[in-house]
Amino acid sequence: MASTTQKKKKQNQEKNYQWLSILFFAAVLAAWCAASYGGMVSDIFLPTPTAVIGKIAELAKNGELWANCWESFSRVMVGWLWSVAVALPAGMLMANSKKFCALIQPLIEFARYLPVVALVPLTLLYLGIGETQKYTIIFLGTFFQLVLMVCDTVSSVDNNMINAARTLGAGKWQVYREVIFPAALPGLMDDFRLTIGWAWTYLVVAEMVAADNGLGYMILKSQRYLATHTIFAGLILIGLIGLITDWIFRLLTRVAAPWQERLGDRK
Q1: What proportion of the chain, given as a percentage, has pLDDT over 90?
Q2: Cβ atoms of residues 233 and 56 within 8 Å
């Protein structure tokens, strides 16, 4: 009975938070409408919502919208998946091997402070102007942070669980596969969700040189002609795709680690 009451209370709180989010979004939209339609801000600096929606509709009609969204989405996903493929095993190994951590952590700590924009000339020199260069920019923007986040998440796994598995005769890789990875999975999914958001922030950097399509390219091209409504359209599209991606990752977390949801209900 107490658990049912507590669950209902939690659901009501979540609904209240959702309404709070909707109200705040509506307030921002109302302020935008008041400032743009009311003439308080020039349309060069702040276009009207109508102009932005009209531009999105125009891009959808001539096919540019879908082509640019797909190009940008594929670049983000490939670059981010590269970083996951390397950061996941490296971070898990760092968390469970002091020698490997001592070897690689100083380099990662140094590299994660390097601005990715400053690495664009080197990536162009080494990789040319093809898609690989763009994937690499997104990889560099997410890998160094992700590997440290994975290490921290895996390090938080209860040592008692690991020791119990070893006592029962589990081998090294069996401990990784059946104890460490499942226990760390909810935290890892949160790490992935956060870093794919960062990958979208590096999209414009990836498309700023030698690109002829993509949402980042569209924004940079519009800047030259002061087409602010097109810039806003590109930013809104990136934000919407990012929100959808975030929602998908939240759903995947519930599917991949349903026990985490049940544990949360008990608290």
Answers
A1: 27
A2: yes
The CA dihedral of 92, 97, 99, 105, to the nearest 10 degrees, is 30
Contact 228, 47 (CB under 8 A): yes
pTM, to two decimals: 0.84
Close Cβ partners of 221 (under 8 Å, ≥ 6 residues apart): none
| Local structure of 39: helix, strand or coil | coil
Give CA 32 to chain center in angstroms.
26
Q: Evaluate whether 89 touches 147 at the Cβ level (below 8 Å).
A: no
Of residues 150, 153, 148, 155, the one with CA closest to residue 96: 155
Report d(CA 181, CA 183) in Å as an integer.
5
Nearest to 76 by CA among 248, 253, 249, 242: 242
Residues in the chain: 267
8 A C-beta contact, residue 137 and residue 119: yes
- The pLDDT-based confidence of 25 (bands split at 50, 70, 90) is confident
The span from the CA of 25 to the CA of 191, in Å, is 26
28-43 burial, b for 16+ CB within 10 Å, e for fewer? eeeebeeebeeeeeee
The SS3 assignment for 181 reads helix
Give pLDDT, residue 3: 59
Measured between its terminal Cα atoms, the distance across the chain in Å is 15
